[in-house]
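Tokens as discussed.
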């Protein structure tokens, strides 16, 4: 019996291997460069679920960008959809219209291993390559994640190399400085350049508010002054936290007269989904049936509601926050 208890104790000390990509409630904020001005906006990206596209099992990512456009002389808000697919710890970007894949992250890669980015559009163009030069593991808020230090080599045309870029890639988070998800292809002049959209913040069902900025995740700049930084002030207030039998939910900066929520446990398992109604910008949720523990509440705002909850989960604006039940 003592040997069994010792074995269980030692087993609990071993690091838990984390899911490498698109865990429940995964949410990213990136820098988003404006056109012509050296100003920063932001791109928010949410993982909204798995969907089968052309028989391919995909993770659907919804992106919403806010930035100042000198061309239009106004603040721009754009939204689009991206698909990735995961196979044996390799993340591919999937293009439904051409039914093609690009390797984005290879979390199996070790020192010296390489992979190519976007496919060539002309035979005179060379593919950019990612080379791993160091690797290891680290804990982020108790989650054990693999990291890779990489060099990104881009090319103008075959034989002409651009200045190499150095970056770090972390499981779940992706690349920190040069987003490999947002590659561009300018062949025959240049190919496969990584986007300038460096990571600001990341959250999921276990990691809350990993940040690389001293400002809010959703700040943006306007051309009226170098220090003219704004924020969309979108958030979620949950109280009391820890909760007992009731939880108050107040959205900040969004319209939420009629909304829907999902609640996940600490393992990322969906345990409840329901419609809620706000009165004076506050809704009360019964938590009597929730055991003591850590949970994540995701609110889908009324601005993005559709006719069914499953369709709503397929996109739109969502806000997530962690809460604790303790009695």
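Sequence:
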């Amino acid at each position: 019996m003592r040997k069994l208890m010792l074995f269980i104790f030692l087993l609990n000390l071993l690091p838990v291997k984390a899911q490498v990509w698109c865990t429940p409630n995964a949410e990213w904020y990136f820098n988003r460069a404006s056109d012509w001005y050296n100003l920063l906006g932001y791109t928010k990206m949410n993982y909204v679920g798995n969907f089968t596209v052309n028989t391919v099992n995909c993770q659907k990512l919804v992106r919403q960008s806010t930035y100042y456009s000198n061309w239009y002389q106004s603040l721009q808000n754009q939204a689009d959809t991206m698909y990735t697919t995961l196979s044996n710890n390799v993340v591919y970007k999937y293009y439904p219209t051409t039914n093609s894949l690009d390797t984005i992250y290879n979390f199996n890669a070790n020192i010296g291993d390489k992979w190519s980015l976007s496919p060539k559009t002309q035979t005179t163009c060379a593919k950019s390559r990612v080379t791993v030069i160091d690797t290891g593991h680290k804990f982020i808020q108790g989650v054990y994640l693999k990291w890779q230090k990489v060099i990104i080599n881009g090319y103008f045309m075959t034989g002409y190399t651009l200045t190499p870029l150095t970056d770090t890639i972390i499981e779940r988070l992706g690349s920190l400085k040069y987003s490999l998800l947002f590659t561009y292809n300018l062949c025959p002049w240049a190919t496969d350049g990584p986007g300038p959209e460096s990571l600001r913040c990341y959250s999921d069902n276990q990691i809350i508010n990993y940040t690389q900025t001293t400002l809010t995740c959703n700040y943006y700049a306007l051309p009226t002054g170098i220090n003219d930084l704004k924020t969309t002030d979108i958030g979620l207030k949950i109280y009391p936290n820890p909760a007992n039998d009731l939880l108050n939910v107040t959205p900040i900066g969004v319209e939420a007269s009629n909304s829907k929520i999902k609640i996940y446990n600490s393992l990322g398992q969906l345990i409840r989904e329901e419609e809620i109604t706000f009165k004076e910008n506050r809704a009360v949720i019964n938590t009597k049936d929730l055991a003591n523990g850590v949970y994540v509440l995701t609110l889908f705002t009324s601005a993005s509601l559709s006719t069914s909850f499953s369709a709503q989960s397929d996109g739109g604006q969502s806000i997530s926050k962690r809460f604790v039940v303790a009695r």
